[in-house]
Design brief:
- With about 130 residues, the protein is mostly beta strands.
- Helices cover about 10% and strands about 45% of the residues.
- A 5-stranded antiparallel β-sheet has the order 2-9-8-5-6, with no helix packed on it.
- The protein is globular.
Length: about 130
């Protein structure tokens, strides 16, 4: 049984590398821009201190989400406000997650909701030269 468990973990990491934590060393690179997200929680949860727990960056066509403290499962929705195109995915908040949207010009709304009830919203504009 234990052997099956480890085999499953290894297969999961191979099949879904975006869920496996990896530091590519580019966190402070000039190729990424921080996206300011605000916590839009309407009623505080037990233990809520008002801090924004989610960090979001845009790098090379992807929005990268990282929670300081895990909040269960999150659903991210990124919408290009210029043409209405929407990208959405669910992911566990235990790992850094990357959602690829490409580099199409426009203003984007980033909305993230977690299974613990937290909601985050932010905006980012992609300008290509």
């Amino acid at each position: 049984m234990l052997k099956f468990f480890w085999y499953s973990i290894i297969c999961f990491c191979i099949a879904f590398p975006q869920f496996c934590w990896a530091d590519d060393g580019e966190e402070d690179s000039d190729n990424s821009d921080e996206v300011v997200v605000d916590n839009t929680t309407l009623k505080p949860k037990s233990g809520f201190d008002g801090a924004v727990n989610l960090k979001c960056k845009y790098r090379l066509g992807s929005f990268i989400f990282k929670f300081e403290t895990p909040e269960g499962t999150a659903k991210a929705r990124v919408t290009n406000l210029s043409n209405g195109k929407t990208y959405s995915r669910s992911f566990p908040t235990f790992f850094e997650y990357s959602l690829t949207v490409g580099n199409e010009e426009g203003s984007y709304e980033i909305f993230v909701e977690t299974s613990r009830g937290s909601k985050y919203i932010g905006y980012y504009t992609i300008v290509t030269h």
